[in-house]
Write a structure and sequence with these properties.
about 80 residues; alpha+beta; Glutaredoxin; four-stranded mixed β-sheet; 2 helices; about 20% helix; Thioredoxin-like_sf; Thioredoxin domain-containing protein
Length: about 80
Amino acid sequence: MAQKATFYHAGCSVCVDAETNLAKSLDPKIFDVEIVDLGANKTRVGEAEAAGVKSVPALVLAGKPYHINFGADLSALK
């Protein structure tokens, strides 16, 4: 069974680049990746915060957030 991974982003160029080069390159046999655009789906900002996300793009694996570069502070998406 694949491990859940959630990639949060805001649709900015840094985020889209990280999505293309990182999130989509994860092995689907190992990771079930959900991509969440918080710019388009603000109802999930609280979920990202609860997972420990401080800025996007960020990838949450096994309940731990990994921040990638810096596209936008999560507070700017509220």
